[in-house]
## 1
Amino acid sequence: MAHVPGAEGACAMLKIRNLDAGYGKLRVLKNISLHVDDGEIVTMIGANGAGKTTLLHTIIGLIKPSKGEIGFQGKSCSQSSVGKIVASGCALVPEGRQVFAPMSVEENLLLGGYVLQRQRGKAAVLKELEHQYELFPILRERRRQLAGTLSGGEQQMLAMGRALMSRPRLVMMDEPSTGLAPLIVKDIFRIILRLREEGNTVLLIEQNAKAALGIADRGYVLEVGKVIVQGPAADLLGNADVQRAYLGREKIE
Amino acid sequence: MFWEPEKECLAREDLEQLQLERLQSTLYRVGTHVPFYRKKFDQLKFNYDKIRSLDDLRRLPFTEKQDLRDNYPYGLFAVPLRDVVRVHSSSGTSGSATVVGYTRNDIKTWSNLVARVITAAGVTKNDVIQIAFGYGLFTGGFGLHYGAELIGASVIPISAGNTKRQIQIMQDFKTTALVCTPSYALILADTMMEMGINRNGLSLRYGLFGGEPWSEAMRQEIHQKLGILATDNYGLSEVMGPGVSGECQECNGLHINEDHFLLEILDPVTLEPVAPGEIGELVITTLTKEAFPMIRYRTRDLTRFIPEPCPCGRTLKRMQRVMGRSDDMLIIKGVNVFPIQIEKVLFEVEGTEPHYQIIVERDNHADKITVLVEVMESIFFDEMKKQRMMVDHIKNRLASELGVGVDVKLVEEKSLERSMGKAKRVIDRRKL
């Protein structure tokens, strides 16, 4: 039999089927299905209010889904607590960074390593801290500084470093480019690409569709809680609907 | 050989997840963008949330050829015309023409899927591929052309017809792969023989055939006469064109590009799924088409799924070669008769040529089939007794295969009309 790459078995890291979730009576996500394979960057694009953040919050366990299944590394996690989900290897870089402003940069990072400390001990945390400083040299320079005094871009890097401290299998990022200067955005996206090179899997939520599709392997377009189209990132960049709605390509003639 | 190994060998579980995701968004898009489907879904009070598994597809209505005609020309397009970069039209051999459209992404997908089919058949970038399918409104020529170009083969876009020139070019350009209908491949072979050309002098190694139903016996015939590995591929313009499925070098069923098409096989009468491996009508839903998505399109093609895994390693499910059309199915004295069954018997009989015609008449209120078969000249010159024996032999074989008696007439070689494209095998003279 010929060598068959990829046929060794199912390889989806995150698998979501028919997910419904919302707030109280408000149904935000409507029958969402999506998957993220090992080693992929997958992006979810959509306008404000489409349900992107709700989706991430449901995956991480902050919101309990009303219907549907979420499978992470082959295990169902739709009813698990946030702590358990994070401990199983899924981390979230929240929208608007949410760093602990009155604490130092290093304290923020160490807090992100609490899962690792519990599982592997102090030495592993210190090793991981060193790795974050390599990835984000600016954080090493600012290690004693209070997080609240950092610039927007530095805070974003700190938020990413803090999430990575748990050595997650899947990193989810909620609009990392929001409110940052274009040059800084470029840096952030370069780091996301580097994360993939290091074997991480990334689910990236973005309003900056062009930049996100530029680095992603695949993408999903969310519109009022429904996936309207999905596919390889290159195909989405070439999709006329996506161009009109998210890439500002439509010219008025 | 694989074109997209990671897709062609996807684990079933991952494939089904992908299919479900694509089905859900396709339904949402057609329901919002195509008035025809919006109306249908509204009438059904169809709720998108009800599609929670691939089986839920069965809640949806079929799309028929007539729906395409009723919405002629652009009524079923899911994108505005400015996003359409190509329009094709079906030949309209039976009834008025239909129109299909492609976006830039659709053409890209099409090329890619045909590249899979061509690669599976053994063709590589080192081959010289002669495309004798018609170019133009018919999807066959362009579809194969795109796929062949994408894999980097040298493409000869000769189009259909002009048999002597086809052979000339095949010789001069050292063609290694031939693309045409299987019946035309036999015409080429016969013409070559007439011209006194030895096939061993040609560079031909592969033949990719499609566009009409053919049989295993015909494959053997092509293999003998042209000395090539003959593979079957399948597609129809209503869902894309060629690229829906194609055979690998095992020559035992066509791998369906299931990540782009969802196929069902249904009983043509009850429209319920047949048991696994049983013959029925093929119904196709497109999963990635942008300009012209189709939901449960009734192809009228008869086939069956081959449930066993293929030794080539592809996990994409196989379908058997198309065995006829559900509307070609002749009901003779209450018995279902498929022309392909007749063809199968004729190919097994020594001394007959692969050209035949089936005449259906009503004689004194009873259905009657007459099969006209071309036989080799040597038999005609021989004594009558031998001919009679042959007729009886064919009659007996047909009666046991079909379960109904038929008449058989032998005719001289080349007395039946030849076709450059799809052969017309059945002439129904019954007035109902």
## 2
Amino acid sequence: MKKKRQGSRMKKYLITLHINNEDYEVTVEDRDTLLDVLREKLHLTGAKEACGTGECGACTVLVDDRAVLACLTLAIEAEGKAITTIEGLAPQGILSPLQQAFIEHGAIQCGFCTPGMILSATALLKANPAPSRQEIQKALEGNLCRCTGYNKIVEAIESVTVKDTP
Amino acid sequence: MHIPQCTYHAPKSLKTIFSLLKSFGTGASFLAGGTDLLVRMKQRLILPEHLIAIRGIKGIENIRYDRSKGLYVAAGVKLATLVTDPVVQENYPVLSYAASLVATTQIRNMATAGGNILQNTRCMYYNRSYQWGKAVSACFKRNGHLCHAVEKSRKCFAVYQGDLAPVLSVLGGVVTLASPETTKEVNVEELFTGDGAMPFQYTTPWLLTGIRIPPPSKNLFSAYKKYRLRNGMDFPLAGVAIALKLDGEIIKNFRMCLTGVASSPLLIQGSDTGIHDKNITLPLIREVADIAYRQAHPVNNLEGDASRRRTMIRLMVEDMLREAIPGYRGQGRGERKETI
Amino acid sequence: MIGKRIPRIDGPVKATGEAKYTVDIQLPGMLCAKILRSPLPHAHILNIDISKALKIRGVKAIITGTDAWGIKHGFVETPRYPADQFVLANDRVRYIGEEVAAVAAIDEDVALEALDAIRVDYEELPAVFDLFEAMKPDAPEIHPVEIPDLKEPYKNIGGQCENVFGDVDGAFAKAFLVKKDRYEGTLRTHCYLEPQATVAHYDSGGTLHVWTSGMGVFRKRMHLSRTLKIPANNIHVHKAWVGGAFGGKIDLFSHEFCTSLLSMRTGRPVKFVAEREEIFSYYRNSQPMVIDLETAVDRDGHILGQRVRCYNDCGAYRGSGVVCIFLCWGFVMLPYRIPALDYRGYSVYTNNPVRAPQRGHGAPKIRFAVESQMDAIAEELSIDPVELRLRNARHRGEILPNGDSVKNAGLIECIQMAAARTNFVATYKKNHTQQSESDHIKRGIGMGVSAYFTGTLIYPNNSAALVQLNDDGTIHLLTGAQDIGQGAETILAQIVAEEFGVSVDDIQVAAADTETTPVDIGSWISGLTYVTGNAVKKAAEEAKKLLLHSASRELNVKPEDLDVKSRTIYVKHDPHQSIPFARAIARHIREHGGDPIIGRGFFRGLKDAAIGPSLKNAKGSWSDSYAFDVQVAEVEVDTRTGHIRVVKAVTAHDCGFPINPLLVEGQIDGQVSMAAGQATNEIVRMKHGLTVNPSFLEYKMPLATEMVENEYIDVVTEEYTKDHHFHTKEVGEGYVSAILAAIANAVYNATGYRTKVLPIHFPLEK
């Protein structure tokens, strides 16, 4: 397999990303992922890299209200979309009902999966405000958690169905 | 882990795509959802210098349904759309169901129908980073001379694990391909070479632009079952799609397509099995399941025992065909059931 | 506060993504580090040529084994088991992935390019991957054997633990029934979500700043101090949140040393984050074991004696294997009365990556073996599985073979309550009779019993804490405790809150920072709530005493007439007489020449023991208290497809008393999930020393769709007392084992198939 010498610097572009209702101008290379930009350029470190290959969900963000993996989304393809990261769920410091529920139900242990998990749940409840337990589990199939066994995560989400959508 | 350096293009027309391809030659790859390609790039299994995104092409996310022409799904339609689109749910529920089983919620929001069909074959020894690869000799799929899964093999056993292709195949799906010179339509199953290392017949400059499925016929029973170890995320360790037309209890038309057990989807036509015009009975079902079992020759190159995967082919065929027996469940339109 | 379901105090920063983990740390001028690893399982290093790599623009420093002063480190460092690992390979590599060189560069692209440009000449040596092959006299030698009391001519023995008591031969001679089986627990792994990561910055003042994803900052500091030859006061291991560990991040990792040394060389911060595939392939997976278990019972099922041989594949260096084989002895002798025991454990070197403890550290595998055999014995003697266990379970106050007491062990209640809640015996019998029915989906119920220790002596052997009262009456707790997800900071805040009658909101916890918080045993030895908790309690008590003393002078009553609530101190018999904390604090400062109120506390387990138990022969006191639990699993087995679904788990546990039941439930949930995975689908597949399923896709840890329904039964055997240290028992590791055994037993109950291997591969009819 041929390896290309990565020494030469590639062209950079100035793009505008609309994140959490704010516009951010960033300089990116074509190959930069949205996750690279969020974490390394914008210091929005809520989205995490736990695998980099699309298998863990820790980098989940919302793009136009749908859950996607930032590690496999090219930053330049995210231009013109409405991106929501975990940092955008509590404007003015008021936690969303889901965030509140996660805390109250003990759904957070080490917290590393938490941003991705909450965003996946947020997307679910936006599309389906009253999901069944099975639907919740299916919606979260791409968000790994090793600490909680998922029990209190599911309970937290169930506690905010129907009555308060985030 | 960063994607290696490359240049991105998002042309707005096929014409521009092909002129770009002409300048870049073999140094370009098409980019759809990126959930297969970008991972393999991060692993440095492929290093295209140019990514040509299909998302800019007009109509690349269209779905059209016509009672006489059937369903047209453009290559860029997201899997999530196939899951929820009312037209697909109503007329091709097995397709909607199969799409819902692919990977995860997030990936279904990103991945495309065309990309899912053209996903590259997989193997424990292949889908690894190039650093990992330093500890083993290069195998056939990595331009080497051996297979790590099957000793002394002369060919590559990388597995085709797509969920959509077998379903499209049994439904009589055709894909439209475009090249600089021409466009053509081929049956879904004709896309595949059967070779694990080079699985596709039509590589760049050919671009898959859409999929067309004939209108569903009245007595069509279609279903898909997928075997995997967990109830989510995983590729099929074995999968079977069937489409069956019954006239009362007599089998008029039958197609079955296996996935996850070979280097391509394996289409088995009813005409090759001798079951047309026979009554659908339990013994006949066992015979059909046996035919499927005998066609499947998985090896131990995925994360599940090969003989179990083979057995599951038999069991899944039996389970689906049993449900097709008139009066068995009262249904005939493919079931929404969880995976086993 | 004690016993309350208080939401975690770190909940908000984690729910908003504000919590910074090591992977999130960014410093100006930070360099990217990458590690060059051996592609061979066993080889001499003939030469390393870094000259070409050094010339690449953007490469700032490269180090190899010759830069590392030849100082070895190890999980344990005793005269019998001296440190045996180099931070970077010196002249030999012993597993695929062993660290050979490290690069610091301006970005990842350049660092990776530099790795490719380093040339290493190897002379390959024969390698061995199977532990029994490695023990044979003609096996390649990975390390010379230095165990003087080793009786057999085995090769590659990294550790041996032997403990014999009672008349074992006599027990077997008079047994009514003897069962002999071999059990295998294969390789599983931790799957912590936060990758292994370290940021190091050696500043111009000569202080090495380190952020690392670990399980105890003081332990890390000790290892770094020794290997880098820097005194402890010049190493500052900073607080960072940790994204899970489960035993896989305890001892020193090469990348921690490398980032530190690279920073010292370049004068810039250096960051290393392992790739997920790197973690699955080359980092520490768990301890696989083969267990030969022989049990002799009398006609009524009482255990008369046991012979146990544990064979542990510890990987290419000793690691924690020697601890694991000691622990397995403990996990055998804890729950049931065993009059005679012949135990021997071997830790065997192979050319596989070094192993680590994983939640339970031997207990899951040994309890799987014992509990499977107990069920088989019950069946053969026609005694129901619950009754058999009740006959053998230890009672309160029993003295263990090592001289420890089980004190207020609640094991009997755990068995009774778990059995009652699940209607165990009737369900067990019903399932058994339904085995022969035609429905291919079978249901099974199974029980497992386990026990765990609560802290022991291993460096650091002590915890200390400071409780400082601020002028306004709010409180600062300084503790070296590391929160790895279990909720340590919340628990400790609750203890302080309990002493002062305030809410946890009045307490600020400063934790896990070697420069500003006192020493702590760390979060990997199952003792945090007990050891650190008691240190914190003492500190709070001392501060409270000073507070009440000043208040008593202010209010003109005796200190024992005072009580506290909501940051006020009031007279018990006349609550209207009260002053705010602030006033008492101000008085104290005035009357003591400026001395603020600071309470100091410390605690050490096994206070009369100089050292922990012997790893050689298990002699000596092990732990101050022992936790017991009984778990019942309900499973569904599809006998057509072999699919096993763990439907429900009931956990009856004696943790002493729960300080925060919400957190305890969280621990149970997580451990049941791990056990369910380990019983069904989790296996690290290796071929010739290389992991072939090194991804979250191919290593089947449970997804949300595999969630198990959990029920909890608290068996309370201790209580929180004022003026005395409290006895809680661990909850973080002990609930993997019994449920794992229970699942295997439940599969048997459903189908008649008894597995001797984990994960369970249910055989289908041809």
## 3
Amino acid sequence: MKGALCLASALLALLAPACGGGAKEPPAPPAPSSAPAKPAGGFRFVDVAREAGITRVVLSGRPGKDHLLDSAGTGVAWLDYDRDGRLDAYIVNGWKLDGERVVEKGRNALYRNRGDGTFEDVTDRAKVAGEGHWGSGVAVADYDGDGRPDILVTNFGPNVLYRNRGNGTFENVAGKAGIEVPGWNTGAAFFDADGDGDLDLYIAGYVDCTLEEVLRAKPVLDWKGVDRVAVGPFGLPGAPDHFFLSDGKGRFREATEEAGLTDKGLAYGFAVRAADFDGDGDMDLYVANDSDPNYLYRNEGNGKFREVGLWSGAALSAGGAAQAGMGVAVGDYNGDTFLDIFVNNFAEDYSTLYRGDGKGFFEDVSEPAGVAQPTFKVLSWGAVFADLDSDGDEDLAIASGHIYPQVDAHPEFGITYAQRNLLLENTGDGRFADATDRSGPGFALVQPSHGLAAGDYDSDGDLDLLISNLDGPPNLLRNDSERGSWLTVALEVPPGGGTVIGTRVVAKVGDRTLVRDLSSSESFLSVNDPRLHFGLGNARSVDRLEVLWADGTRTVLTNVEADRFVTVKKGP
Amino acid sequence: MNRTVRILTGVVALMAAVAVLAPVRADQHDSTATPEQLVAAYGSLADTILSAKKTELNLVHSILATAYGHAQSTMASARDKMKAGKDARSEVEKLATLVSHLGNEGDAAVAGVRKRLVEAGHHHHASTEQRGQFEEGFVIVTRAAKKVFMDAAGQIGKMAAAPNAAALEAEWQKVQKQYQGLMATGK
């Protein structure tokens, strides 16, 4: 049967060329925003990675990117691993190949923040180099409740779970914990699925392939009739996602089917984001799938989930098409207190902004919000909602880069392999304006960028950006923008006192309500600053700061002065 | 593919092998013509391939008909519950899911099979896919029809918490009309 169908399909392919479903029309330029334009010089980002000492080159397969693994890229993370109040950085690394030969197995890097704008490479001392695996993504959470952040690295190969020993070193406990699942693992999310106070874990799978298949791959997929590029993801079998329930003692057991989280379509899973999308007090799960409908798993209230993506509005574009979902950002772009979702998509297709209604339903508003047009040409991977100028609304920073270096040989298509990252400024009226050209030299860089994480590494009250690039060192875009007042909230629970993951913080500032929630990962397989940043514009204080902890309890502060860091500790 | 088709395919393959291995006879009328045996074998294989394509069409019809049938009975249950003043949330959500399956030509498991076919290069509507009329690998549900089903599924899902009988009927009418239209033309 299979042979006859293959022959049949080959014959049909000869008669009528296989295709990618029809070219998409670029969206029309957005109508001008009604909000007043920001004065020139508002945004300014400068790449200081080299001076700061963040220099680890991210190895990425072969120059020609013969297999998708060569061009998938890796994630980056902000965390305070030594709990000294300063943000440290973790870079995931891949391998370098030459034809079918493994030239070098890249080492992940942990950079300790010295507090003077520079970092120290403590990878070897901390023992977090990645165990020689081809790294994919990263998630950070205190999975064992001992008060110290741990690092999960997803790999092409067995995953690694670095348990923080508290003395500046880590140990890999993935095997003991039961979460290695060798395969092409991508996005991961720690979250309390069943409301029992400990962190469970979802890990997405992308493509089911062996290292041998990767090494032997050749670019044989026809691209626009002018070149040959890496095959996939269509053409490659999908890998299943996995869900693990924690026993509360540092071990997990696979519970994918019993939780209703079976990846029935074997979708090509990338970024994963847990959040309470329907406002009912429990954690739901969103999975960006490449070329497949995205999944939205609604928590039914007891750790059992139901996949409602197709009719929730968050699985497909407004036109009903599955897109090439890669990175995910979650925030409240329009200030209505309901979580919205942004998904990065392929080149010559827009990245999608789904506006949430707080009840678990979403609408693709990419065009009216002005996001569709600037994201159409680029191939974007990482994204963060971040108030980069602290004016009270969340902007969008987007990391971009193509997967086919072959595009550079065909300038007639107007697409390049290395691309500029984007800064879309929230104009405060539900729309975004492309501010990339007026955001300083950091946004003039042209690189194949993938991982992206926002964090205030220099503790000056604004969010900086850490970006990973294929076959090159990361960028650390220091934020030197003009900005308004701010407040940054750090959350703490006592050891054994539950988790901060899933905590929601609501700030009332005059007639505005600002919402942030804490997740273990976001963007493209990356991790943002665990402290939640609020831009306050001209306000000098937050009238009311409400912390809704993951276990449903609340802590309220009033009249919180602006322009400082505040640590809120959960009571017993 | 069923056993009969498998057997037929094997016979055709055997005929083709025999034709290739058989020596060319010196007294053949036209020595440049493709051997008759090969043409015959190819003709038989073409019948098999086209038959498989027809089988695929019929199977997808069945998938849609099954989803539609379930949707009809679910709609009936929802109507009854709403009429009786009972909570119909579960039925309405189930209806939303089934309508989304119409739009997606089946559930995620079917999507996995479709992906496997596309992996092997099989597109039921290769040329019309290129014109954007069908999603990759789809057989009956056009992109336009998919949008109608998905929009309706979304509207139905939103009503689940507090279903409105008239609004639900209106969305169901759209689903019915689209489904019947597809069944009349899908080939």
## 4
Amino acid sequence: MSRSVVPVLTVLGCLLALWYGAAVWLNAPWAYDKATRSGAEMNFPALVEDTWSQEKPKLPAPHQVGAELWKTTVLKKVTSKRSLIYHSWVTLSATLLGFVLGTGLGVALAVGIVFNRTMDMSVMPWVIASQTIPILAIAPMIIVVLNAVGISGLLPKAMISMYLSFFPVVVGMVKGLRSPDQMQLDQMRTWHASAAQTFWKLRLPASMPYFFTSLKIGMAASLVGAIVGELPTGAVAGLGARLLAGSYYGQTIQIWSALIMAAALAATLVGIIGVLQRVTLKRMGMS
Amino acid sequence: MHSVISAQNLDLTFQTNDGPVHALKDVSLDIEPGDFVSFIGPSGCGKTTFLRVMADLEQPTGGSVTVNGVSPEQARKNRAYGYVFQAAGLYPWRTIAGNIQLPLEIMGIPKAEQESRVAQVLDLVELTGFEKKFPWQLSGGMQQRASIARALSFDADILLMDEPFGALDEIVRDHLNEQLLKLWARTQKTIAFVTHSIPEAVYLSTKIVVMSPRPGRITDIIDSPLPKERPLDIRDSPEFLEVAQRVREGLRAGHLDE
């Protein structure tokens, strides 16, 4: 554990140094602009100080983002419309619902594909084609169509999450359910096992390593889906709304803090699945 | 008394991209109850294919074969045989007891009986005390013993074994051969055993079937004169060496035909 801390901290330090440097470089034109207008002379310390503390910088400095995160998570009440926790929860609920729906759909399709030759031939190309459609194009359609039939709020966003997250689950589970080798299938045949018995006792347990890997990718995709789903709704609530509102008003600090929050959320969710994966596979003797 | 396994003029041709491959050609053989029959020959001679035909894992293209007087398919459905594959193929997520229980669960045998049968077959392969261990905690030889126990668990009269000790080292193999003979004496099962080791075939069998490739066929059937009681050092006796010599000649003759 401690051996992995040093490299991680080194990389983090390098990134922060790069970030601060880039903030000076990118925000300098605006700083010079202001100095010229007020007729003041700008030396280097003054330039650094200015570029790291602008109100609408091109690239906010890390401590500015940190301060904004602190302000909008710890100092704001969770129920407040300006609380990032509140917006994260809005996005998280859609992410989780979409993830559950997507996983369910993905597993169901995979089972169909593995057990039914017709489905194998007919469904798989559509599954792949579905992912070639840009999600940004189809997301507003889903929102609008569902709105027209009276479904709004959580579900339309979850549908977009589902649309993105079922794909890795289908692909992973098809591979996982087909992972038992010919010998293991022959063995089942010698015992005159039914297809259902082969599924429950062999194919499903054998697919577990693939399942968890798919879940990790599906979870990350689901979060992206929920954020994208929040963009066309007019930016009411959620991390996507914060991103959109931030870009409307040039609030780069707000955008970056929403981005960091989204990244932290994704890391936590994927991390939880990682822990589940480790515990389950260890108990199954498959790690 | 009729044969446990009876094959008449069996043919099996695989259609491949390089043209037809004659895996078996005009193979006829009778296996009597309680026989220990070894199939020996170079790779491609059809010995494994023949075993798979008996197990209804391959379909012959000609001739006829019966297992326990019925078709291999019916015999498979009656669970008339246990099949031991080259690899143990134990499920890593099940304990040794869980693995042995697997065919019993599939066959719908009551829970209490499952447990007594597991204990019984673990005793037969001398693995008592390893019930709760997982496969990765056992050596290769012990895993293969567990897989034999699994094939025995539902008490079929026939045991089909496809090079079960092929991947194990000489010392472990000797030990398992000895154990297998004891097990065979205790259970009175009919065993069909595929191998490519001459000493193994001669040591174990009451009947040795020598096969040769292209097309896969039987070149010699040797009824072993060795007694049923066989200590390991029987392999130094003149009778043993004589049978081994005849097997070797049979294998060589098969090659000269080409």
